[in-house]
Amino acid sequence: MQEKIKQAYKLLDACRLCPRECGINRVKGELGFCRAGLLPMVSSFHPHFGEEPPISGSRGSGTIFFTQCNLRCVFCQNYPISHMGEGREVSIEELAATMLRLQGQGCHNINLVTPTHYTPQILEALILARQRGLNIPMVYNCGGYEGVETLDLLEGVVDIYMPDMKYSNSKAAERFSSAPNYFEISKKAVKEMYGQVGDLKIEKGIAIKGLLIRHLVLPDNLAGSEAIFDFIAEELSPQTYVNIMAQYYPCHMALRFPEISRRITHREYIDTLKLAKKKGLSGGFRQVLATINRSRIPEWTEDLRDP
Ligand code: SF4
After folding, report:
1. How many domains does the structure of the chain reveal?
2. pTM, to two decimals
3. Does residue 21 have its Cβ closer than 6 Å to ligand 1?
4. CA–CA dist 131, 243 (Å, integer)
């Protein structure tokens, strides 16, 4: 672990922690695309009951929200944190203590939200927390725009990877996240994650290890869902746990982009679920599909009903 920490900090000298490869010296306080400095910044931490059922369980997921982001999507629902830097710097000691506090509150796991740009600091805090008794699974909850070199350092450290797969459409990825190569990068990253942890393993309703992919449906299929489902089914595993999310709404700067200035419709969501099923995927979203029909729409999708 000490060697991993050393290697991870080396990546900050001319920062290449993520595929942006900004090349700036984070150790000297220079800021790159993500605007992250040397010390980690945390916006909030608490037991979270709104994650996927095997992640939240009955006692909550011990969520730590990191400030800043290496994607900065124009429609980000957490934009005060990811774009505007809401949060405060914490020491490595404090971060380790936060992990232990969440474990002490009974959380099923430590859920690192948007951790990519603080990987070395998180590794350092984690080793400290482990030495002091941290023993619950570590969840790496990221945007999917990750470098394999950095992910290599997380092998044997992260138990559950929870990446987004946001776009297969490079024009959308460029327009909304300034990352035209998003799909190519995320495919390599998610393959690496899958190689490290495999399919999601759930014991007594709680995830203990594995991969969980999130996919947010965008209006007019701008995310390019089909190619993402093809990749998951053919290059990972049809059993991959996939959460197909309906909660898109035009947030932050999205209203400046006419094509994403509305919520998705109920029809768009159902069609995306059916597409995933047709591609042979079987994990995660199937329960949602089984529950939804015109006469019994779950509360959380009611506002997606066609006019
Ligand atoms: S972590 Fe931040 S500074 Fe480093 S390469 Fe990625 S975006 Fe640039």
Report:
1. 1
2. 0.93
3. yes
4. 34
